[in-house]
Amino acid sequence: MLVYLRYALAVMLCSICASGWAEGDFSTAQAQTDPTLNSAPQESLSLTPSRGISSLNPPQAAPYAKPADASLKPASAQIPPVNQAVPIEETEFQKFIAASIGKRLPMFGYDTFSASPTTFAPVDHVPVTPDYTVGPGDEVDIRVWGQIDADLHLQVDRLGQIYIPKVGNLNVSGLKYQDLKSYIRTAVGRNFRNFNLEVNLGQLRSIQIYVVGQARRPGSYTVSALSTLVNALFASGGPSGAGSMRHIQLKRQDKIVTEFDVYDFLLEGDKSKDAHLQAGDVIYIPPVGQVAAITGSINVPAIYELKDKTDLARLIAMAGGLTTTAAGQKVEVERIENRKDRVVDDFDLDQAGLARQLKDGDLVKVIPISPEFKNAVTLRGNVAFPFRYPWHQGMRVTDIIPDKDVLITADYWRRQNMTNQDKVSGVGGIFGQNTTNRDKIFGVAGAFGEIRRSIPEINWDYAVVERLDWSDLRTRLIPFNLGKAVLDKDPSQNLELQPGDVVTVFSKDEMKVSVEKQTRLVTIEGEVKNDGVFEAKPGETLRQLVARLGGLTDKAYLFGAEFTRESTRKLQQQRLEESIDRMERDVRKNAATSAQSAMDQKGMDAAKQQATSQQAALEKLRQAKATGRIVLEIPPEADALKDIPDVVLENGDRLFVPAIPSTVGVFGEVYNENNAFFYKQSKRVSDYLSQAGGPTRDADADRIFVLRADGSVISSQSDRGFFSSSFEGMRLMPGDAVVVPEKLDKTPILKSILDWSQMIVNMGVSLATLKFIGVI
Question: Cα(34)–Cα(418) distance, rounded to whole angstroms?
Fold first, then answer.
């Protein structure tokens, strides 16, 4: 029971102390007169005659306990200010304007106070102004040396007095700071001679003021005696949305000391109407006056409070002036007439229009200039510099496209200037280091043609003039033959231009042309007489191009030739990604079904583990990239140019003819994995599997497959072998690879996607990619 009584007493004492500090009733004067609080400081304030040379030095201050008011100030004066966004409630007029223009306009200046401090710390570290009035609670610091030595820290009591030993009580309340020194010097001089004296103000008193009216946080505030009206406005959060920014009054003893216009402060930096606060001052914020909004091409669109008679020029000036893109002829004004009708008016931006008076509720819309070019013709598309040209009478297409140089794009010159593209192959193929052939300057030399660059080619057969028909405001397209206009100077194609016309030049990629007119760059590499990047003639086939380049070398292995096509690669990649997305949806659906049908926790864990395994397989598969390889179906024994198929070439095609390899690879789940074995004509699949140690226990023996050197796949589930009725007895060729997949958790959902042999065939995933992502 005693413990509970002690606890209750402690809580009561804490509550009393907290209440006293919050109200600030315990004054600094009480601290000065109570001997239990400041007896030590009083004893140190005695004046003693100086003795010897030591008296010429400034005296050492006696030990001094900080006055009690430092710890007994109201809590609001001690907690450091904390920035906190204070939202302003949206006014009815703001909602009205938002409904008219489709966006919210702020009330000008109110956001200045939106991050005002939640408390107000005294302004203690600024110089005291000469006209500062000393009052109860101020600390007066007196330093005397000469005939006497003293370092005094005195506080003005509630009677407005300070006590100086051997001098007596001095009434200093009401004195200006500039008169305080002479007043104290005179008093001390009545008892002492030959001394020097300095007087300063130490910690200043706090005063209580009131903020009332339409303030964001009205109430009483304890602030520093150095505080001004502006300081108090920030402390109280400024006016609310319904409060005036232009008629804020400071009242003292029922009289208006000053009327402060925040707009003068914000727009012109004028703080001349600011005033120092005194105890008991009242800051009154009246309701907001007449308002007008301005929006559009103005620097500071907002809602502004009007004062006296405000004309259009003044409102535009308050809003920061017109923007650079504002139309300077007139503005539109929406007005409320007689508090019932809404009308629209135009104010000209001349001297008379700018002098027109605004009314409460006006909405001024500043119109931007039109984006139309009155005298321009625009050239755009596959050109060196898309540009606007000044139109003149009789202007034609060749005036803006005088020659072919205008059609060479900047991208061409950037590629031309790349210094890492200067290694030329034997016949003229140009190769860079760090980039693929398709990113380089391509070409052939000598009898095989002219060096070309892989940049978008001009469509010489089609360009267009876009023109607005002012009779019905429809856009007309006027096509013309660019080659005839620019190269042949054909007057019928050299169209006359009009102001506002847009001339567009297309590349062959943007506007598809016939196959015969397309430029096709093909890469030929490996065991060919001449390798490099070459331009295929219109309709030229793969066999014809290889023959034109001199044919094959004696070491060429046609069965292992790799033929890839960019359009095929994109299609394969799209098919792969669509398959993975479909499987992911099925995995999630299957996981949810399995979890719901599980009978116990063990079943749920098994379903979760299965879903995790399936998802991991799909994540691996997402790393696979299609190659775009097309199986040429060349016989294994083929070695002649005639065996190359007559495939019509496309831009970006690539043929790589390897040398005849001497090994056969065995990969995957075998005991001697990832090894290559010398090729022997007599060996079959089973022989190579035996050399690799045979399948491991983790191998999926039912899904072993052979990846042929030509890119085709034969699996163990095929109905027939190559030269034998059984898969194990199939004879392999140099460069072939036997792949033994890992046995995975193949539910019906993942069964097809984990059939790596079909993935290689249908989606162009290479064996190297499967090895890289770790599925074999």
Answer: 89
Fold of 92-116+206-285: Outer membrane lipoprotein wza fold like (3.10.560)
In this predicted model, what pLDDT tens digit does every residue of 145-196 receive, in sequence order?
998 899 999 999 999 999 999 899 999 999 999 999 999 999 999 989 999 9
H/E element holding 179?
A: helix 177-189
What distance in Å separates the CA atoms of residue 413 and residue 434, rounded to the nearest whole number?
Answer: 19
**Whether the model pTM is above 0.70:** no
Query: Among residues 505, 508, 528, 511, which one has the least CA distance to residue 520?
Result: 508
Which among 466, 493, 462 has a CA at the least distance from the CA of 478?
466
pLDDT in tens, 304-326: 999 989 999 999 999 999 999 99
Contact 298, 326 (CB under 8 A): yes
pLDDT tens per residue, range 658-710: 999 999 999 888 888 767 899 998 899 999 999 999 999 888 888 888 888 98
Q: Which of 59-68, 540-549, 651-660 has the lowest mean pLDDT?
A: 59-68
In the 3-class helix/strand/coil scheme, how is 727-764 assigned residue by residue?
Answer: CCCCECCCCCEEEECECCCCCHHHHCCCCHHHHHHHHC
Whether residue 413 is predicted with pLDDT greater than 70 in this model: the reply is: yes
Task: Name residue, tokens 């179906």.
Answer: 633
* Rounded CA separation 319/305 (Å): 11
Domain boundaries, given as residue ranges, for the chain: 2-67+140-191, 92-116+206-285, 291-368, 379-517, 571-772
Q: How far apart are CA 648 and CA 663, in angstroms?
A: 32
Each residue's pLDDT tens digit, 61-120? 333 333 333 333 333 333 334 445 556 788 999 999 999 999 999 999 998 887 655 444
pLDDT of residue 745: 56
Residues 6+ apart with CB under 8 A from 579: 753, 763
Query: Which architecture characterizes domain 291-368 according to CATH?
Result: Roll (3.10)
Identify each DSSP E strand in 349-491 by its residue range: 363-368, 376-381, 387-390, 423-424, 430-431, 458-469, 474-480
Name the strand (E) or helix (H) holding 213: strand 206-213
CATH placement of domain 571-772: 3.10.560.10
Please state, in angstroms and rounded to a whole number, the distance separating the CA atoms of residues 311 and 353.
Answer: 9
Q: Show the tokens assigned to 444.
A: 């052939």
**Amino acid letter, 207:** I
